[in-house]
Each structure stands twice: as C-alpha cells, then as structure tokens.
Write a structure and sequence with these properties.
heterodimer, A: alpha/beta, 2 domains, 6 helices, B: alpha/beta, 28% helix, binds flavin-adenine dinucleotide
Chain lengths: 270, 334
C-alpha cells in the first residue's frame, strides 16, 4: 500500500508578519511544516504502525506499493528551498519525498496547486492521499477536494482520526462537523484531509533525524497550468492592538463593570 | 442580463443552518448590486418545504429536490447531483457558508467547474458590475488579502459564519419553486455510518455568538464547569486554548486557534489564556474580546477590548452571577 502525504512549508506560526506590496515579509522567521500536514503525516504513520496498511495495492494498473508493506511518500510543491519541511517529514518517518519544483516563484492559486499535485500523484499511484485540511499561510482549505476531483476519487474532510477497515480495504474516519462527528467508511483510493485530533504529531529522535538524511528526495520540474482568474490586489497587516480598557477593583465590582462595558459595546443576542 | 446569484443552502434536521441564511442574505445583496436575481439551492427530501423561509431571507427562486438520504450525500455525489443544474443556470456567483459542510462542497464544485474559489471571506464589494473584490484572512489572521474576481464566472465564495448580518429581507414574497432533479443517492464509496453528537446544549464554536474559553490557568478539566455556567448565562459555547486541550482537559473539537477552530463571536472571553500568536489566530474576528488573567503583563491584554487583572476563579463566578441577574432583569421587563 502506498500513502502519499501532501506537505507544505509555511512561515513560523508565532512570527509577526508584515506585507510589502502583495507579498508577506518573512524577515528571519523560520519555515516550518504546515501544522495540519503534520497531523496528516502522523495519521499515515499510525495507520502503518497499526499493521493494517500492509495490503497489496488495490489500485488497478497503478504501480501500487510493494506487497506486504506500506510506503509513505511525501509530495510537496514549492518554489523556495523546502529542505526543512521535507526533512522534518522524513525524520518523522516518511520513506521518501517527491518535490515538485515550479520554474518561477509566482504565487499559485489553490486550483493551480491542486491540479499540478494531482498530476504528480497520478505517477505515484497512491491508495490513500492524506493532507492537512488547510495551510497556515493561504488558509484556503481547498487543495484536498481539488486533488480528489482531479483524481476522480472521493474525499473525506475534517478527519480527526483514521483507521483501515479490512477486508476492503476502506478508510474508516472520524470527521469533525461542528458539534458532532461523522463516522465514515470510504473505499480506496481516496483523499482525506486532517485536523488536530487526539493524537499529536511525534517529535523525531536524533536517530530519526540522521537517517532522514539518507532518504531519497526526487525533484521534478513543474509549470502551472495558468487556470486562475483570481488575483490578489492588496495585502495588509490588520491593527494588532485593541482598546485594552483595564478594569480595576475587587472581583465583584470588576465583574459587574466588565459586564456593563460588554453590554454597552455589543448585543450578544442580535 | 447577468446570471443569478446562487446561495447553496445547508440543511440540518428541519431547516437551513444559520450561516447559510447569512450567505443567502449576502447573495440577495450581491444580486441587487448586479441587478439580477437571488436564487437558493437546497438538497434533501424536505428541501422544497423550506422555500417560504428561504424567500424571507432573500431568495427569489428556490431550486430544491432530493429523495430520502440525499441530504447526506458525500461531497462527490453532491457535486455530481448539482453540477448539471448549476451549469444550466449559469450563475454569476455561487455562495456557500464556510461551515465544514459548505467548505468542502464549495471546493469540490469549484474544481469541477474549473473556477476559483475565495474561501471564508469576511467582506465583499462589487466595484463595478464586472468585478468583485473580497477580503479574507491569511497567515492565521496576521495578514488580510483582497482578491479580485473578473470575467470568469461563476465567482465562487464561502462566507465566514457570524460576520454577515442575519435579517429577513424587506419584501418576503414566496419564491418560485424550481424543481431540482437529484438522482437517488448512488453507490458512493464514501458511506456515513454514524453521526455522534458531542454537545447538544451548545452551539458549534464557529457559529456561537459568545465563546468563553479557558487556558492553562484553568488547572484541570473540572474547573471548566465554571466556564460552562458563564457560557450558559451568556448564551454561548465553551472553548479552550491548545495548552488546555493538550493537557486533556478539553476535547480537540473545543480548541480555538491556528490549529483549532476559528471563531468570530460577538463576545469572546479568554480566561487564564496568555494570548499566544496561534491562539489569536482563532479569535481576531471577534467583535469584543474580554480577558481575565492574573498576570498584568499577559499579551492577551494588548489584543483585548477589556481586561480584568485577577484570579479567574474569583472573577468568573461573579461575572456569571451578574450575567444571570441581567438576564432576569431583561426577562422581567419583557
Ligand atoms: C504549530 C502550533 C500551533 C498552535 N496552535 C494553537 C491553537 O490553535 N490554539 C492555541 O490556543 N494555541 C496554539 N498553539 C500553542 C500556543 O503557542 C500557546 O502555547 C498556547 O496558546 C498557550 O496556551 P495558554 O494561554 O492556555 O497557556 P499559557 O501560555 O501557559 O498561559 C496561561 C495563562 O493563564 C494565566 N493564569 C494562570 N492562573 C490563572 C488564574 N487563576 N486566573 C487567571 N489567569 C491565570 C497565566 O497568567 C497565563 O497568562 C500552537 C502552537 C504551535 C507551535
């Protein structure tokens, strides 16, 4: 079985950002793996560790994974050097990585990104494609469904935890839907997008980090099918601070004063 | 004449969900701006019976249809079901609410139609009749981008819940029903086995008008009961910081922030939360932020509209009492 995990590098989620023209200024902030993609990779690793993912690939005609094993392949699209993100994913336990390198540094829209990733995925023949529900940079939450559409397979979104059902095999997933959960079963191949669930991503050990250096990283040049008509026309940093009215006094007076201020400021019932 | 502006409505139980009605209100506003009609589309066995209600919220025509089970179509089958009618309708714009249901269907439908989607927008303006500009948060709300749609239609949007006003349209005529042919749910490989309701009493975090959250300062899971009392008194939902979720005090679906739910309530109350960047990512669009923290230097105070420096175990119960008192007052007056 082969699980492809889509991975994106984003700027550190704790850094302050500014905008210069239409692009963010990252300054010295460190690139990290999109946290949602880490949830997806963790889920893939757990699926493999559960022992259920050793099935021969059911994908007809596709190369499939080697029988009796489960291969986890990272797939990323990035113009900038993506060493950190890919390397971290390999250290967490992925077997190899495929990096799609665009010819130019232009910003890609979700539609362009999803379609190119789907082309790369077609050459890999995955049984499962896992990705984060959204990325901590463009916050689009679209690439999973776009990839699923381009591959012509079902999508399972907002997954907190997943397992494999045998025989089948099928993906059994617990998906978050507001105040409820949907327990779904989805035949393979399919695309699943992940949220933060009960299982947090693992930290690689020193040994994992060293062995990651030996793992294969395959680079392929790609160019976008320029399919988008949606343009960014401005990028701004919203005001950081608010009114910060500090209320003093004992607990009872402060609580009453706070409530009065809230009542004067917003109507919570409207 | 331009194609209509179409709002795709999410049904739950007996009727449409509130964020879908907000989206429908904006569809009606955009349609007026473009001098075209506002349509609503709903799929489900009882969809047609919502027509009058959808009319009150701005729909001039309602496309509805579906047999038993079709309200639960997976995103793939849903797209298969609505694509032909939408292609035929040639809408100028298609709006969904940015709920989990709406977001994944909008993305799939946009990919099917080969058009772009602007997700979770917080404002829009039609600069001239040929273009549409929308704003949305990026980088966890650290930046806001404005995107421009031009001639390629439909413009596809999802609208962040709780941002746009909800209000019945002025002239609520009964909309003309348009039958929607929905094939009986075929054999998707994706089957819904069970729906587990985790909290019936509270609204979903993303849609709540009031969110009361607790952080590491709560010190355990039991003390969250005082936040539940406050949330109940204010008519809201309980959230948590990641530190509180990581500690196992609250389940992951209650986490607010960059890797949790993004909330946009009228009132957000942060109790024992320091205000890390990733927490702020989830609360920036709150109308009013109040913070209770023992540390006067806590960063949360800088991003709050009002703050109380104090022990949450003393302040929160008093706040609950005061809120209950006020509620009684309003009930007596009414
Ligand atoms: C990739 C990534 C993603 C993340 N995503 C999220 C996210 O989605 N959401 C999120 O919240 N965090 C997220 N974080 C974590 C974030 O960086 C912070 O660690 C976290 O928000 C801290 O939670 P806290 O404020 O509850 O805890 P702390 O920072 O420990 O703050 C506790 C506060 O409680 C106050 N306090 C203690 N006792 C009391 C008392 N009795 N009364 C009043 N106040 C008291 C203290 O003064 C302190 O300010 C993320 C981090 C990373 C790296």
């Amino acid at each position: 079985m082969r699980i492809c995990v889509l991975l994106k590098q984003v700027p550190d989620t704790s850094a302050r950002l500014q905008a210069v023209g239409l692009e963010p200024l990252f300054g010295g902030c460190l690139p990290v793996v999109n946290p949602y993609d880490e949830f997806a990779l963790e889920a893939a690793l757990r699926l493999r560790e559960s022992g259920a993912a050793v099935h021969p690939s059911p994908v007809p005609g596709g190369p499939g994974g080697p029988e009796g094993s489960c291969e986890i392949v990272l797939v990323t699209l990035c113009a900038a050097p993506v060493e950190e993100a890919v390397f971290h994913g390999l250290a967490m336990g992925a077997d190899r990585a495929v990096v799609a390198e665009p010819s130019s540094g232009a910003r890609w829209t979700p539609l362009e990104t999803g379609r190119v990733l789907a082309e790369v995925l077609k050459t890999l023949g995955p049984d499962l494609v896992f990705c984060g529900e959204k990325a901590a940079d463009d916050e689009a939450a679209q690439v999973g469904p776009i990839v699923a559409e381009a591959l012509g397979v079902a999508q399972v979104c907002g997954v907190e935890s997943a397992a494999l059902e045998l025989p089948g095999p099928a993906l059994r997933a617990r998906c978050r839907r507001g105040n409820s959960f949907h327990e779904v079963s989805c035949g393979l191949p399919c695309v699943a997008t992940f949220l933060r669930g009960p299982a947090l991503p693992r930290y690689p050990s020193m040994a994992d980090i060293f062995s990651a250096k030996e793992k294969p990283v395959h680079r392929i040049p790609v160019s976008p099918a320029r399919v988008s008509a949606l343009r960014r026309v401005s990028l701004t940093a919203p005001p950081e601070e608010r009114g910060r009215k500090m209320i003093r006094g004992g607990a009872r007076e402060a609580a009453q004063a706070l409530l009065d201020l809230i009542d004067r400021s917003v109507d919570c019932r409207a | 004449m331009k194609g209509p502006v179409l709002a795709v409505v999410e049904l739950q139980g007996a009727g449409p969900v509130r964020p879908s009605l907000e989206a429908l209100g904006q569809a009606a506003a955009l349609a007026r701006r473009l001098e075209t009609q506002a349509w609503a589309l709903a799929v489900g066995p009882r969809a047609a019976s919502c027509a009058a209600l959808l009319g009150r919220y701005g729909a001039q025509r309602v496309m509805a249809g579906g047999v038993a089970g079709s309200e639960r179509l997976c995103a793939l089958l849903f797209t298969d079901a609505v694509e032909p009618s939408i292609r035929e309708l040639r809408p100028q714009a298609v709006l969904f609410a940015a709920t989990p249901w709406g977001s994944e269907r909008a993305a799939r439908l946009a990919a099917r139609l080969g058009v772009d989607l602007a997700g979770a927008i917080t404002s829009w303006r039609a600069t001239d009749p040929g273009t549409l500009r929308v704003s949305r948060s990026v980088y966890g709300g650290r930046l806001v981008e404005e995107l421009e749609f031009t001639d390629r239609v439909p413009w596809m949007l999802t609208l962040r819940p709780n941002i746009f006003p909800l209000g019945p349209a002025a002239s609520g005529r009964i909309p003309e029903p348009v039958p929607l042919e929905v094939p009986p749910p075929g054999s998707s490989c994706c089957r819904l086995l069970e729906v587990i309701v985790s909290s019936r009493a509270e609204p979903p975090l993303a849609e709540a008008a009031v969110v009361v959250s607790g952080g590491r300062g709560m010190g355990g899971s039991k003390p969250f009961s005082i936040l539940r009392d406050l949330a109940e008194a204010l008519g809201g939902a309980v959230g948590a910081s990641r530190a509180a979720v990581d500690a196992g005090w609250m389940p992951p679906e209650r986490q607010v922030g960059q890797t949790g739910t993004v909330v946009s309530p009228k009132l957000y109350v942060a109790c024992g939360i320091s205000g890390a960047m990733q927490h702020r990512a989830g609360i920036r669009d709150s109308r009013f932020i109040a913070a209770i923290n023992t540390d006067p230097e806590a960063p949360i105070f800088r991003f709050a509209d009002a703050g109380v420096v104090g022990d949450l175990f003393e302040v929160v119960p008093r706040l609950t009492e005061a809120a209950r008192g006020k509620r009684r007052e309003t009930l007596e007056k009414a």
